[in-house]
Amino acid sequence: MGRSVLVTGGNRGIGRAIAEAFAQAGDEVAVTYRTGEPPAGFLGVQCDVTDPDAVEAAFTTIEAEQGPVEVLVANAGVTRDTLLLRMSEADWATVIDTNLTGSFRVAKRAAKGMLRLKRGRIVLISSVVGLLGSAGQVNYAASKAGLVGMARSMARELGSRSITTNVVAPGFVDTDMTAELPEDKRREYLQAIPLRRFTTAEEIAGVVRWVASPEAGYLTGAVIPVDGGLGMGH
Length: 234
What we know:
By secondary structure, this protein is α/β, with parallel strands linked by helices. It has a single domain (4-172, 200-225), classed as 3-Layer(aba) Sandwich (Rossmann fold), CATH 3.40.50. The chain is 45% helix and 15% strand. The protein contains eight helices and seven strands; from the N terminus they run βαββαβαβααβαααβ. The chain has helices at 13-24, 52-66, 89-117, 129-132, 138-158, 176-179, 183-192, 201-211, and strands at residues 4-7, 28-33, 43-46, 71-74, 120-125, 163-170, 223-226. It has a seven-stranded parallel sheet with strand order 3-2-1-4-5-6-7, sandwiched between helices. Strand 4 (71-74), helix 3 (89-117) and strand 5 (120-125) form a beta-alpha-beta unit. The longest helix has 29 residues, at 89-117.
């Protein structure tokens, strides 16, 4: 029997690749999604992580269908990019509430079941932007940096019950969005990356799956960059 895995924001992009990686390893995987349709082959649960009642309802459904969550990947996130002086209170609040507070909500709820099981894996998906900073992303960078302090504090609180908490920080991912960047901007980004290429969602998913594996059982409170060397030293 595989483990009960939850990936928030698992209906597309990095989240979907992570869900598929766990499913391929034989785990039972639930994904939350806010809009659109869940991918076939997974337990899809509609959930807005900014709504505490929706988070509770999602966990209740998942626990009934596939048991207590043993692996949580907090991936759901949004952007509202603009320069600091143009950033509205709503731009700030939306990103912080979704990316940081939403991760807190799902981690807190998952930890309840993990404490009873006396085991668990929590992986928070941050970003190289949370370590390096990025012009026009004050809100996003703050939310992703906040995940590091949150994860390390949870690692200290939960470690005695064999629950690990780690952060995976992706760099630029090869997606339709990066493919549409102006050629000069794309070249600028690539020149800053020692490996001279963007990563793929599958490469990130492989690292996340390993972090949640038995082989990584002694790893907690770590920040693992998957960024081609872009953020090294930060």
